[in-house]
Amino acid sequence: MPIVFLLYWFVFNKTKSSQNLLLILSSYYFYSCWDWRFLFLLVFSTFLDYYTGIQIEKSNNDKTRKFWFWLSIGINLGFLGVFKYYNFFASSFATLLSDFGLKSTPFLLDVVLPVGISFYTFHGLSYVIDIYKKRIKAEYNFVDYSLFVSYFPLLVAGPIERATHLLPQVKVKRSFDFEKAKQGLFQFIWGLVKKVVIADTCATYANAIFDNYTHMNSWSLILGAVYFAFQIYGDFSGYSDMALGMSKLFGIDLLRNFNYPYFSRDIAEFWRRWHISLSSWFKDYLYIPLGGSKGGKSQQIRNTFIIFVVSGFWHGANWTYLAWGFINALYFLPLLLRNKNRSNIEMVQLEWNFASAKEILHIVYTFALACLAWVFFRAKSITDAVLYIKRVFTEGSFTSQYLSNERYNYELLLMIGLFVIVEWNNRFKEEPISGKNSWLRLSLAVVAILAFGTFSDYKEFIYFQF
Q1: Is the Cβ–Cβ distance between 3 and 132 less than 8 Å?
Q2: Which are the catalytic amino acids?
Q3: Per-residue buried b or exposed e for 166-182, using 16+ beta carbons within 10 Å of the residue's own CB
Q4: What integer pLDDT is reported at residue 456 of this predicted model?
């Protein structure tokens, strides 16, 4: 990134075309560093949507427009289905047959899941759908369109961008803006704090507890769910902050993906603040086309369950993700039935009164619901998730339980508490570093990154597997 940054502003800064060409070549190199063989898949998907988008726009015949539209949709979803879901369906079908006494040996694909395929596929799908619906015009500059799909800060884990937001920015020459670059640096560093200091530290304890849950008491299991909740939040929102911050260094704004979701007062507010780009994608391209909230309650309930279950399935080919989506739909149902799903739009503000105490209880309750659902997201199987939760309520010991790698358990809880306080006090900003004493805050953040990064043995980003 530093090399590209210097080339971008000091060598390729003369024209928009040279800036975009550098970024697209850098993006392809970045993706190739993972596995160069899958670069073909990314380029082919990009060219497919670029070409079909032009054909859809140029055609005056509705039948021809539909042909190109469904060709793009079918091939994109076909790639996603083969690489991500084929083995799941084949194995599940074989298991179903065995339940009826029929033996079968399914043919499974021995192929790795291409990193970022769910993200860049959704970029292309939204672009083609928007052209088909005549919301946008097709892009005729292949480099510009390729950059929209493959821009390296968002390529492997989002946010899921829209052509209406990102394409206009890549079609104009960017000039260096020191204030934007400074904001980007602050956001990037805070993303690293979330990842290295919070997520990677929590991962060590969460993994130990989930991997040994059959020997854990209630208190340890509760801690395991809380640790994973902060792990996945620090990991994914940290990546998103790093992507947004890095992009600002190149003069480009990406869609905000997280807005302090653990301060939500109900599950509807939680989903307006968690993985915002995916939630809004499903709302615009699945929920609304299904009828949205226009029909009766039965249709609204059906549509709600569809988008939550599909959202769960988007995350991976495992029954645990489907269960996680279904559970969140169940959480959402009472709000929908009482027309309370749009109650908490603005960020919570507290005062010294009874109403604020009630708000705090709602935040704690919503966080507890999220942690319960995260157990299914983290568990290897639905059976493991159910047994994990069962032990929370049956292994009634709430004493501190020793684990060989839990020597700093109380210190970790203290660090999580400090992290929550920092985020709470800065919840009306994109990141907590900017503002008064920003350079002191930046220095403390860098020290924390260096200190914890030295000892962290967990490096992977969770959402790379999706």
Answers
A1: no
A2: 315
A3: bbebbeeebeeeeebbb
A4: 67
